[in-house]
Amino acid sequence: MTSALLPILAAALYLSAAGLLWHGLSAGRPLRGGARTGVLVLAAGALALHAALLYSDLFQSGLNLGLTSAASLVAWAVTLLFLAAVLFQPIESLGTLILPVAAATLLLEWLWPTRHLTLPGASPVQAAHIVISLLAYSLLSIAVVQSLMLSLQERALHGRHAGGFLRNLPPLETMEHLLFRMIAVGFALLTLTLVSGVFFSEELFGKPLRFTHHIVLSIIAWAVFGMLLVGRYLYGWRGRTAVRWTLAGFMLLVLGYFGSKFVLEVLLGRAS
User: How many other CB atoms are there within 10 angstroms of residue 72's CB atom?
Assistant: First the structure.
């Protein structure tokens, strides 16, 4: 009973926080003061329960990086970064997408657990590589959510029918500034991830570097994000161009990591 109660409670807290955020924004009343604090407390409580569930699933006799466990871990890290950033930046609206996704991945991990035990005794290099790569994926995930919000806001303003939710988002210039700040930091972390993977492949994975589809797609994604930042700096890329490049780069990352895991673990029934 307890094992079923925790994921359900955590998901309910995530969804409650997201619902309150959506209600406030759609009604034209962005949450402030005690109401805003209450929503953040709900989300933080869900995050703490999510962490407890992840710990019991991920760190039993090794690090479990199965498909649903990895997805849940990334969603948890995305939510953690979101809650940290929302204290300093006006990005509360991103919670209407981030929090439901965190609830969904948490329930998916509980209902459909996958096992892939690896790194029974992780070295400092292995641990650093995992942490950096997780932060890179997480920050770029938040950038994707930000780009989707930016796209909706731009279309609504051009169509002159911005509703209550979109009307209460920060100005387009602020949204774009935040988007490129996230992409720049995420790109730097992704660069460190790829560099550490190339130069420490044997220590990280116990074998020399091989250019698998996962590595190739990650490198292409890195190039896409790099070209987006260059385009922004040299040519002032913004709006729909920025959104398309952001989505393209992120989809390549998703296909490179989670796509390969889905094929190997779900379709072929073996560990990746």
Answer: 26
- For residue range 9-43, what is the model confidence (pLDDT) as tens digits? 999 999 999 999 988 887 766 667 788 899 999 99
pLDDT at 242 (0 to 100): 92
- Token duo for residue 170: 């920060």
pLDDT category at 5 given cuts 50, 70, 90 is confident
Residue 1: pLDDT over 70 = no
Q: How far is CA 58 from CA 69, 116, 134, 192, in A?
A: 7, 9, 14, 24
Are the C-beta atoms of residues 98 and 79 closer than 8 Å to each other?
yes
- CA 74 to chain CA centroid, Å, is 6
Per-residue H/E/C for the chain: CHHHHHHHHHHHHHHHHHHHHHHHHHCCCCCCHHHHHHHHHHHHHHHHHHHHHHHHHHCCCCEECCHHHHHHHHHHHHHHHHHHHCCCCCCHHHHHHHHHHHHHHHHHHHHCCCCCEECCCCCHHHHHHHHHHHHHHHHHHHHHHHHHHHHHHHHHHHCCCCCHHHHCCCCHHHHHHHHHHHHHHHHHHHHHHHHHHHHCHHHHHCCCCCCCHHHHHHHHHHHHHHHHHHHHHHHCCCHHHHHHHHHHHHHHHHHHHHHHHHHHHHHCCCCC
